[in-house]
Amino acid sequence: MMNAYTGEMFHNTESHTSQQANSDELSNLYYQGVREQIYAGFGIRLVSFIIDVLIIHGLQRLILAPLNHFTHIPDWKLWINYFSVDHLVKALIFYLYFVLLTKCFKQTLGKMICNIRVERVDREALRWSDVLFREWLGRIVSGVMLCLPYVVVLFTPQHRGIHDYFGDTVVIKNKYAKLFFLKK
């Protein structure tokens, strides 16, 4: 700017500093807003889980119906009805579905349809321990507690459920994957 009285040029460094601070604050607010969009919320995760349960039910019927017909497995009990061979095979199919698909593809078929996937919080590759803690131990704990720990997804900043905390994972939307890996 030019001084009207002396004709000298001067720079308003105070104004430049405040503009830079405002720009940084605006950039940070923009990043925070975008970051909230990266993570898959409760609704889409619920739809994904319902799709997965329907697929698992179909797999169980496809595998167990002929097996039950020829071997009468539902009649076999170990100690109590809960530990029947039929129930244990159904549980095995359920957990194998989630563990194997999450480890191999970072998503189950329900998540593929909903365009979301599982990633580690630290953005490293999923390890077997992460997947086992998330998909096996986390789902057992959530199931024992009547699925109430899934509601935690509604109240956490990154929409993480209890099972996500067990596995140190988050569920992100595929279309924002580049942004997820951009800034830690």
Automatic annotation (TrEMBL):
Q: Where in the cell is it found?
A: Cell membrane
Which UniProt keywords are present, listed alphabetically?
Cell membrane, Membrane, Transmembrane, Transmembrane helix
Which Pfam families does this chain map to? RDD
Is Transmembrane helix included in the keywords of this UniProt record? yes
Primary location class:
membrane
Q: Topology versus the membrane, per the UniProt entry?
A: Multi-pass membrane protein
Give the stretches traversing the membrane.
38-59, 79-102, 136-156
* RDD domain residues: 39-167
Task: Report the protein name in the record.
Answer: RDD family protein
Please tell me the species this chain comes from.
Staphylococcus argensis
